[in-house]
Amino acid sequence: MNAKSAIVRPPGQSYCDCISSHPDRYRISLRKAIMQHEQYRKTLAELGLELIILPPEDDMPDSCFVEDTAIIDGKKAILTRPALEARRKEVSSIQDVISEYFEIFHIAEPATLEGGDVFLTLKEVVCGVTKRTNMKGASCLARILNRLLIGIEDSSIVHLKSYVTYLGDSKLIATKEYANNPAFEKFEILQVSEEEKYSANTLLINDTVLIPDNHPKTELMLRDNGFNVESINVSEFQKCEGALTCLSLIF
Question: Cα–Cα distance between 34 and 74 in angstroms, integer?
C-alpha cells in the first residue's frame, strides 16, 4: 500500500487514567506523552504523510490510540466495537471524519473488534482473538472485506500487534511465541530478541519501518534485511500498553 495520509489524535488531559496493567502505569508523564506525540506526528509528516489531526478528547483517556477505532481497506472503513464499554464512545468521536473519506461499515453486538488485533495482507485478514476481540468480530470483519480469515486465538493478551506486525511482501516481525505459530507458516518471519519484545510492534510507512527507540538488535536485524529504519521514543505510550501502530490510522 502506498500510504498518503494518517489520522492522529494527541493525548487529552485525562491520558494518565488510561486502561493499563503495565508496571510503570503510575509513572506516566502527560507532558512527555504530548511531546512524544508531537515528535511522532513530525516523523509521519517527514515520511510524506498528510496528517489529519483530531482535537484531544479530554474525557477519553485512551482516545489517542485511534488505531483501535477502525480498520481501513481501500475505500472501506470498518468502525470497530471495543470490548470495553468505556472505549466505545471513541468510535463515535471519530466516525464523522472517517465518513468523509470512506464507505462506513459497522461491527454489531455481540461481536467485539479492535484495530490493535488486525493486520491485512493482500488476500487475508489476520486477526487476534484476544481480550479485546472475539471470533464473531474477526469473522464479521473478514466477511465485510471478502478475505480469508487467519484467526490467532490467545485470550491472555490485549492485542495481537503487540507481538507481531506485518512488514509487507509476506514478511512478519514477531516475538518468539508467535514466530513459531503454525498459522504463520507461509510467512517469512523476523524474530525479535527476548529483551527487545516491545519492538515487535513496528509501523511500516511505504519503504520505512518505524520502531521504538533503544532496540538496537531489532534495528540491525531490519537493516540487514533491507529495510530503511527510523526509531522514535514512545515510552509514555508503552506505559499505557500502547505502541507505534496504536497512534495512527494510515491510509
Answer: 31
The residue-averaged pLDDT of 195-204 equals 98
Dist CA 63 CA 65 (whole Å): 5
Check residue 187 and report its DSSP letter: S
Tell me the CA distances in angstroms from 50 to 30, 46, 97, 236, one per residue in order: 25, 9, 14, 24
Percentage above 70 pLDDT, the chain: 100
Neighbours of 136 (CB within 10 A): 17
Structural domain boundaries of the chain?
Answer: 5-250
pLDDT tens for each residue of 71-129: 999 999 999 999 999 999 999 999 999 999 999 999 999 999 999 999 999 999 999 99
> Within 10 A of 132 (CB to CB), how many other CB atoms are there?
23
Measured over the CA atoms of residue 72, residue 73, residue 79 and residue 83, the dihedral's sign is negative
Q: Name residue 99's beta-bridge partners.
A: none
| Beta carbons of 245 and 116 less than 8 angstroms apart | yes
* All cell numbers assigned to 109: 453486538
| C-alpha to C-alpha distance for 229 and 215, rounded to whole angstroms | 11
Residue showing cell 481501500: 74
The grid coordinates listed for 225 are 534485511
- For residue 7, what are the contacts with CB-CB under 8 A and spacing of at least 6? 52, 54, 66, 94, 97, 98, 248, 249, 251
Q: What is the pTM of this model?
A: 0.97
For the cut 90, the answer to whether the pLDDT of residue 24 exceeds it is yes
CATH class for the region spanning 5-250: alpha beta
Parallel, antiparallel or unpaired: strands 50-53 and 164-168:
unpaired
